[in-house]
Amino acid sequence: MMRRLLIFLMLCAVLTMLAVSTFAQEAGISGHGVIREGNAAQAEALEALNPLLCETQACRRLTNLMYPRLLAVDPEIGVYIGADQSDQFPPALALDWTFEGATYTLRLRDDLTWSDGTPVTAFDVLFSYMMGEASNTGSAYANQFDDRFASDVIGAAVVGESTVQFTFDHETCSALNVLDFPVIPSHVFDANFRDAADALRENGGYGDDFEAALANYFASLSTPLNGIPFNQPLTVTLSGAFVLDELRPTEYIRLTTPDDRLAFEYVDVPDRNTEVDMFLRGELNFISNPPNDRRDDLRAAEERGEIRIFEYPGMTWYAIAFNVADPDDPQPAFDEDGNRLEQGAHPIFSDVRVRRAVQLALDIPTMLEASIFDEGTIMAANQVPSSWAFNPDLQPVGYDPIEAGRLLDEAGWYDANRDGVRECVRCTTAEPDAPLRFELVYSDSLSRYDIMANLITRDLRRVGINVSAYSTSTDSLDDTLQAQQFDAAIVTHVDSFPVNPDQTGLFTSAYDFLYTEGNVTSYNNPEVTTLLDQARDVNNATCDLDTRADLYRQAQVILQADQPYAWLFAVNQFMAVRADVANWNPEPFFPLWHIDEWVIAPIGGG
User: Fold this and answer.
1) Would you tell me how many other CB atoms lie within 10 Å of the CB of residue 466?
2) Residue pLDDT, tens place only, 233-287
3) DSSP-based three-state secondary structure for 276
4) Predicted local distance difference test score (pLDDT) of residue 354
5) Does the pLDDT of residue 417 top 60, yes or no?
6) Domain residues for 175?
7) What's the CA gap between 490 and 478, in Å, rounded?
8) At what angle do helices 122-133 and 193-204 cross, to 10 degrees?
9) What single string gives the DSSP state of each residue in 170-201?
10) End-to-end alpha-carbon separation of the chain, Å?
11) 6 domain-assigned
């Protein structure tokens, strides 16, 4: 009980510092009523409402309504745009950006304030980046900032009240994906941060000096600044955005706009099925990504005119990764001196005809129906349909077991002894008479993986391939993949939005290492490598999106044909509102898009 009371008091401290919203007045928030969404994570289990610390969707749902992000997004095409070109709520900060070499300069808007009246400035952006980078803050953005597949920031500085610079370790067109983060008020934690930022700029330099300067500043955060630990709820939000109004443990957490016209209640529910039932009864009026097996119930309600639904392909996608190198003697692509190493050949999957045969033998529509109730989109290659680099002209390979058998015959695999399993008769990758048998490893974290593995085993058995499938923990699966001691594996990739289509880390030899994430299949096609390198090269048409998209689409065609993976499906996203929610204009990956305009009233008026 004391813990609940403490959480309640800390969160309600926000009320003591809220000011009249100039932004709300200027923007003219037109919405009114109460939006209610179910929260199976429970209000009392939420992390501190600091957007840099949010690890869960439940926490982000709230902080996304309270704090700005550095970059605005065009949700229709999934690319970054200037804040003055966007009407997202809360507003983003960067009006535009330029780059010279590896240095990006971002010009910020100067018309926003925090709820205590303090202007939002470039110092807040720099502070937020530093806290996201810091290892001792528990930031949810540490992996994003330290992503070794992307370019690393080696220098950052405020160059004006509304201008901030970031310098990367190399030139890249993917830099903006690294800089997509929420912004918090620096003065709440360090009233003297401006002085620290100036010293950082003057003495930090770049490279090792910059890292040392960051480390020195981080060390000062070992004790709370201004008496406010970084992992406690913030007491200042963006002026004009939602603010915390009330927390009732075991009931709900409530945010309101400063004028109290519009409220968002995150209502505690015991489980997702109960959430669907409450939504269908009208006790909730918004729902996002309900259980796959309940979505038909919601579609039936839509047919009755009770609700409205919006669906689209999501960011989570599945595939079968094929190891094309020797799993008994795994080697990285290069030695410590950069010399190419011999990696051997997998006795089965080093032959592209066998890999394509596996793809053709899989009845993916049936797999999709059985594993996630047909709530997905079949993948054609390596880019999800929501990516701006997606190739709309490339169709999925399709189900054709007859062609699969023909390719296996062509590759020299026949069922000579009529036992139902093919053997190497004229194959060039395995020992004579070796059976066409391999192990398939997958995670035991979700029941859908068991269903997928069983169907893969069944489908491949029908064309003479014997699969020994087994599950293991996610950590063990990661270790197996990174050691490259596997035949094939069901893998899951989760992209972020906007999608960064740069997959050099998955499909080029430059990232073919042992015992770390990267190109675990040892796939290598110099043409794909060239296309991917060109697509992220800032010297290639100055990062022009159309030019880059064409390069990525060419790479997709080759990757589909080369089959380093058997492409399976992406999980669809789903959101719905009750019919009495007006001005609901949904966009992909922004469940509460234009929430400031939503009007909630009884059906028929009111």
Assistant:
1) 15
2) 677 899 999 999 998 888 999 999 999 999 999 999 999 999 999 999 999 999 9
3) helix
4) 99
5) yes
6) 2-222
7) 11
8) 70
9) S--TTHHHHT--B---HHHH-TTHHHHHHHHH
10) 40
11) yes
Cα within 13 Å of Cα(178), Cβ side: 25
CATH of residue 536's domain is 3.10.105.10
CB-CB neighbours of 455 under 10 Å = 19
Exposure string over 78-103, b if 16+ CB within 10 A, otherwise e: bebbbbeebebbbbbbbbebebeebb
Residue 590 covered by a domain: no
Q: Which two tokens stand for residue 436?
A: 């066409």
In the block, tokens 């299949």 appear at 521
Phi then psi for residue 297, to 5 deg, are -60, -40
Instruction: Identify the domain boundary among 192, 222, 252.
Output: 222
Bond prior to 432 in cis (omega within 30° of 0): no
Beta-strand pair 423-424/599-600 = unpaired
In angstroms, rounded to a whole number, what is the distance separating the alpha carbons of residues 184 and 151?
24
**Contact predicate 436/466, CB 8 Å:** yes
Tokens describing residue 274 = 């109960």
Q: Lowest mean pLDDT: which of 147-151, 260-264, 265-269, 319-323? A: 147-151
Among 34, 171, 179, 36, which Cα is nearest to 106's?
Answer: 179
Amino acid type, 537: D
3-state SS class at 267 = strand
Name the nearest CA neighbour of 191 among 166, 228, 218. 228
- Please indicate whether residue 29 or residue 581 has the higher confidence score (pLDDT): 581
CA distances from 120 to 50, 123, 337 (A): 16, 8, 48
118 contacts: CB under 8 Å, gap ≥ 6: 185, 187, 236
